[in-house]
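Final report, closing paragraph on structural work. Over the funding period we assembled a curated collection of sequence-structure pairs, and we close with a single example.
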Amino acid sequence: MAEIVSLAEGVARLVRDGDTVALEGFTHLIPVAASHEIIRQERRDLTLVRMTPDIVYDQLIGAGCARKLVFSWGGNPGVGSLHRFRDAVQHSWPVPLEIEEHSHAGMANRYVAGASGLPFAVLRGYAGTDLPAQTATIKQITCPFTGERLAAVPAINPDVSIIHAQRADRDGNVQLWGLTGVQKEAVLAARRSLVTVEEVVDELTPVPGGIVLPGWALTCVAEVPHGAHPSYAQGYYERDNGYYEAWDAIGRDREAFTRWLNDHVLTETSAGGVR
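Its predicted structure, as stored:
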């Protein structure tokens, strides 16, 4: 069964240098607090996996945690580019960054294959794109029944997957609802998992459309109120749009980013803000 731990203990136990780490969450329930703890614990040489890297991965990349990014889209939603990501790819600052680019459908199917215990996934995606020519993990195969040419992509099995959810009970069962993206698949595909939650409660009350991840499928759960900020947690708080807008100027400049990192992540009193 999942063990309820502090955020610092969960990251210390589960995230190791050189790991493949997936931090998933689509639009809301993004595990921002967990990413900041990874930065504070100075994890290095990580392969970061995420369908839609946004500012949380910009921060991890800028802090020097990543050596590779596996993704299908990257940007500051509604604002523009990820400047720490661009700086790492174009100028190797603070360290060189390798990239492996897929489509959304390809990434989702890779997680599903990993969660299903399959070695690869098959889909009709990538037709008409040059991604197969740029990405070694996209291969063409022929259907043995119809002769149709299809794309095959390898399963994703992260060393550790980290997600944020609304709540958990004291037995480590986790409940989340709203836009759930591939959180379930990312957790089930991983060797180890950490789920941060807004609160730990005595009993999980059913929610329409909600998903319950059983404690036996998880490794650790940590209670981290506002752990998804500046993204939102449906039923708890709204998206902080000002944070995303302010991040553009901070992320553009190395010195501004370094100051922000020291002031809002690396200090014990940091709140992860962009003030």
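The mean pLDDT is 95. The chain is about 30% helix and 25% strand. We thank the funder for supporting this effort.
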